Amino acid sequence: MNIRKLIALLLVLSLCLSLFTACGQAEPEEAPTESTTTPTTEPSTQATEEDADSETFAYGENDVTAKADYAVTVASPASDAMQLPIAVNAEGETAMTNSDLQVYYWLVFYDFMSYYGNYAAYFGLDYNKPLAQQPSMMENRTWEQYFLESAMTQFAKNYAMAMAAYAEGYTLSEEDQAMIDDLADPQGEFATESMGYGFESAEAYVQANFGMGVDIDTYQDYMRLYYAAFDYNSSNEAVFREAATDELMETYYLENAESFAESRVVNVNNVTVRHILIGPEGEPDVVTGQYSEEAWAAAEAKINDIYAQWQENPTEENFSAMATELTHDTASAESGGLYEDFTTNAMVSTFSDWCFDQTRQPGDTGIVKSDYGYHLIYFVEQTETRGWLEIVREQYVNEQLSALVAATMEQYPIKVDYAQIRIFDMITYSLSLTEEDSHDHADEPVG
After folding, report:
1. pLDDT tens digit string along 262-295?
2. Which of residues 365, 385, 405 is at a domain's end?
3. What sign has the CA pseudo-torsion 159, 53, 75, 181?
4. What is the domain count for the chain?
5. pTM surpassing 0.90?
6. Which of 33, 67, 131, 250 is the most exposed place for a label (fewest CB within 10 A)?
7. DSSP structural state of residue 441
8. What separation in angstroms does the CA of 36 have from each of 30, 44, 134, 145?
9. Which strand (E) or helix (H) includes residue 10?
């Protein structure tokens, strides 16, 4: 099953009903840097679905701070509030309704949750509180506003790329059309998958992920736009990649050599080495997280002893055997400390600097220190692989794609009226279901 079919049939995300109740329970071992900000306005009392102003529109005249709270707890796909056109194209035609927005909004939320997991709590995100009541890691944005802004940006990109595809005569493939049709088939694969997860229908599954303002038609519309944008991006990526010849990439590297050097990408071939790592032992300081000078000195003494022992039989085969037995690097122990065919930016700098010294010859050995400990390195060879060229090619292609997206968004702009936006509050809704479930089981016997 290809990845796009997986997206269509399984939504590529955890069920929200288990998501919200499970998040925020476990503490991570180490946190990223925390950012504290203040929302632009105090959150209002929670909005209802019916309070959208359908008489007056202000497309492009406000931003994501137009409302302090966009949440509603009652919604249906065909309701006036969910069918409001919240974004229009340059011709004033409807580009997005509130119903469409729900899919983008919650996909952005799930993606954030998937990437950060429990670490999200250190950014101030509490999955058990309405998002409009929490300042986000972005200044002057609540979490609700943060995700809304991200969702609208993603939609604007998808919309522009899809419109460009259609302008060039794009049509869905038979396979993609069949997958979209399957979404609405009560006997289809998507419905079967949905009921396999315990839902009574495919629509119930969709609403469990995106809220009560979404139906199968909405999700089909999302998939049509997604496929068109995806295919347009992929076809252009193939064109850029074909144009990125080795000769052009060598020139591109030289033109951007300083920038590449900052990320330790250097135009030299890959290398293969073996190493034995001895790290400082004992417990690091509880305040600084650093090992004592004595621990580091002991590690240095041990690596020197190992080096002296190896010199009694200075062969690669002996080095490999000693690495398997002695190294603290569990990732390479079974292979005799072997790291094959890697680029200049693949390892920590001190390790990499020694390995990519252009005077290095097969059989050379040396000891370097890194944050992990002391490394005894055996230089095997410089390979024929020009890994740096592929890194340069990826940057070039991504740069061309970014420029294409920016130009296409200018060609097919959308304007949003944030004051008309309503977002079904999946967090409050899911917590209420959990509370109802706990009440239902309150009188059940224990044990």
Report:
1. 999 999 999 999 999 999 999 998 888 899 999 9
2. 385
3. negative
4. 2
5. no
6. 33
7. T
8. 18, 21, 11, 15
9. helix 3-10
